[in-house]
Design goal:
heterodimer, A: 753 residues, Aldehyde Oxidoreductase, domain 4, Aldehyde Oxidoreductase, domain 3, 3 domains, 18 helices, B: 162 residues, alpha+beta, Ubiquitin-like (UB roll), 2 domains
Amino acid sequence: MSSVKTKRDVLGTSSLRPDGGAKVKGDFAFTSDLHAENMLWGATLRSPHPHARIVSIDTTAAWKIAGVECIVTADDVPGQLTYGLISSDQPVFAKDVVRYMGEPIAAVAADHPETCRRALAAITVVYEVLPVLFDPELAIGDDFEPIHPDGNLIRQQRIVHGDTSVVGDVIVEGHYVIGMQDQAFLGTESALALPDADGQGVEVFVATQWLHEDQKQMAACLNLPTERVRLVLGGVGGAFGAREDISLQVHTALLALRTSRPVKMQYGREESFFGHVHRHPATVWMRHHATNEGKIVKIEARFVFDGGAYASTSAAVLINGVTHTQGPYKCPVAVVDGYAVRTNNPPCGAMRGFGVVQACFAHEGQMDKLAAAVGTDPVSIRLMNAMETGDLLITGQPVESVAPVARLIRETNEIPLPPDLAIDANELDLPGGSGITAERKHIRRGIGWGVSIKNIMYSEGFDDYSTARCTLSDGKVVLKFATSEVGQGFVTLAPQIARSVLGVTDAVCDTIDTQIGSAGSTSASRQTWMSGGAVDGACRLVRERLFELVGAQQNIEPIRFAIEDDEIVDTAGTFRMSVIEASQGITISETFEHHHRKTEELDENGQGNCHVAFAFVAHRAVVDVDPELGLVKVVQIATAQDVGQVLNPLSVLGQIEGGIAQGLGLAVMEEIIVQEGRVRNPSFTDYLLPTALDAPVVVARMIEEYEPQAPLGAKGVGEPPCISVTPAIVAAIRDAIGKDIDRCPVRPQDICL
Amino acid sequence: MSTNEFYSLKVNGVDHHVSDAWIGESLLYVLRERLGLPGSKGACEQGECGSCTVFIDGAAVCSCLVMAASAVESEIATVEGLNADGTLTDVQEAFVTEGAVQCGFCTPGLVMAVHHLLDENDSPSELEVKEALSGNICRCTGYGRIFAAVDKVVAVRRGALS
C-alpha cells in the first residue's frame, strides 16, 4: 500500500463505516424503526409448556376485541406447514403438539401493541401436558418415545482415524459441560411486511443474516412464487448466529397478506429469548493419549449436543464439533462419537463459533491436564503439539491453510503480563467491583491458555457462493449485493475493495435486497472471503472492460494497463489517464459469483475433505478470583490471531475485542437456565451480559500471513476471538484456585463450594 | 382504553402534543411511535441495557422505565437533539473515528451516556468511565473502542482548553 499517493480508503486502511454518522445520530433505520401508512402491529401466542398436546384453540373472544384485524393459526398457513435450514421440521405454528416452551401457536394483527397483547390473552388454548424429554442422553437411544416424526436423534457421526489400537504412555481424561449461551443481539427480531396490491406477493423488510434463504423458506410456507416474496434488509442490530433461522418472517408476511395491510412485528426481549435458537449446550468427554514427553498419539471423544425441539443447524454444528476434536494440534489417531439430539428444551442452532466453541472448551482443558501429567507447562505442551500447514486432520483432510499455530502461541506469550495486583489496590478494581465484597488479601491471580482452530465457510459439499455487481459510471462505483450487514462491516470493506481494484474514490453500496443473486449467510466468518471475493471479481471484470475501452481509444493493448493509485497507466509506455476521466459518459456493469473450492461429505468413519479453510488464534487470560465468594475479574486477555491479510485494521480489532467479550460471557456469566424444558431467566436482568466494568484489557496482535486460497488473502476474523478465550479464562480460574472446574460458565458455587 | 385528553412533552426544546395516547405508554414508546423520534432504542424494557437513554431535566434515565405522562413538566433531551446544527458532536465524531460503532443499536444510548459523563466530569479515571458506562450494554465491540472514543474526546477537549 506504500505506493498510494492520495488518501483514498483502499484495502489495508482503517476506512470508517459509511453508516457511522447515521448510527451515532440515531438516524440509521433499524428494522424496528420502520413504519408504513395504515400499519398494523403483529404479535405471537406462544406455548407455556415444553411438551403438550393441543386439545383445542378458541379465538372467538379475541376476534371480538376492537382493533383486532386478524388471527392466524396453523390452519391458515397456505403452503408448507414447516420450515427449517437443513431439514424442514419446524411448524410455522404448532398444530397438534407443542415441543418447546415458547413455540408459536397463533399470531394476531391489531391497531396497537397493547391490543395485540389483549388479543393474545383472550385466545384460549387447552393443552394436555405430556412428559418432557429434557435429558439429551435419553434422546440418544430408544428410551424415550419420539417427540417428533423425525425421531429424537437428529444426527450421529463417528470419526475413526489411524491405528486405533495405539495406547499412550500417559492418558488424561475429562468430562466437560458447556452451558446454553444466548446471542443477545441488542436489536430484537423485527420485520415489516407490505402486501402487494394484487394480494399475490409481499415485500418484507427484515433483520436477517441470509435474505435468500429466508425468501426460499417464506415462499414455500406462503405458497407464493419466490419472486413474489421480495426481501429487503432492514437495519440489523447484531446477529451472532441468531438470525440464521426463520423467526417472525412467515408470521408477519402471512398477517400482511391476510389483512391487505402493512404489518410490523417486533419481539420484546423476553420473547426474543424464545424467538431464536441458542448456542447448543453440550457434554464432551475426551481421553488424550500421549508419549511421556507429551506428544499426542490418540484422542478418544464423545460429544452430545442438545439441539432442543427442532433440528435447525444441529447437524452441521455436530460436524463442526467432532471434526475439531483435536484442536490446533497434531493428532495421528482418533475415535470420536458425536450425537446431536432432539429434546423438549429450547431449539439450538447457530452462534458465533458454531460447535467449535464446545470442542475447544474440552480439548483445551485436556491440554492443561496433559501438561500437568507429563510435568510441563501449558505453553510448552501446546508448542510441542502445534499443527502446521500440511498436517492431516483426524478426518484425513490436509490443512492447506496457512497455520501459524506455534507463532500465535509464541507471540501471545511475548505480550507482557499485567502488573501484579497492588497490595493497596482500589477495592473497586477487585472481583465484585462496586459491590465492594472482596478483601484484597483473599484475592488470587491465575493465568490460563486457550488456542483454537476454526473452519471458515460452509462445509460438507455445500456451495455457499456469493454474488455481487459492480457498476462504474463517471468515475463512481455502485456495488450491489445481498450480503447482510449485521454490524460486522461489510459495507465498509466492499467500497475499499472497489477503490483498490478500480482506482476510484467514490464507491457506495446499493440497497441490500433479493434483487440480485444470493450472498449466502453472514456467518461462519465467511463474508470477507466469499462476498469480498464476489465484489473483487465484479470489480476486476469492470476493470477489464475499462481497459479494453481505453485500449481501443488509445491503440494500446489492454494487457499493458494497470491501475496505479487513481490512474490507468500503460506499464510499457507513458500513457496515463485518471479513472474518472476514462469512465466519463460511460457505464460498465458486471456481475460475479464467487464460489469456494468444493468440499466433500464425511463417510461413515468421518473421513473426507469436508471443510474449506481454517483460521487459528491463541489467547492467554489473567484473572483475579475471590475464592470465598466465587467472584472473578478478568484482568487481561492477550491474543495473537491468524488473520491472513489485514484489510481494515480497525474493523479487525473490533471483531477481536467484541468476540473476546462474548467468550468472556460464556466463561463466567452467560447461561440460559433451563429446568425440565422451562427457561428460567429470559431477561437482561437475569441473563447476565458483560458490561463495561467486565471488559478486560485486551492486548491483540494481528498475525499477517497472506492466505493464498483467499480472494483477498484475508481470513475471516469474526469467530476465532470468541472460541479459545473461554477455556483460557476457565484455565486461569483453575490456576488461581487450584481446583478442577469442568464447566462453563463458571458459577460462584463452582469456585467456592 | 385510550383517552381523548392530551398532554404535552417538551423534547429537545420543542413542545409536542400527545393525543389519544394510552396512559401506560412509556416515554420510549411515545418518543418512538408517536413523536417520530426513533433515535432512542428499546432492547430490554427493564432498564438494564441503556439503549433508550435520554436526559430528563439533565439526568440520564432509561426512557423505557418512565411513563411518558409523568414527564410533562420536564425538559426531555434525546439523541436527535444533539445535532441541531447538523454537525456531529465531538462524542459522536469520536465514536465514528475510533471504531466504537458496529451494529449501532446501543450507540445512541451510549452517545448520550458519554455526553452525560463528560459534562459532569471532564477528566474521568478509567474506573469512572467504566462505572458511568456500565448501564449501557454493547454486544458487538467488547467496549474497547468505546473507551478509546471517550479518551479521544477527553484529550481533544483538554487540548482545546490549553
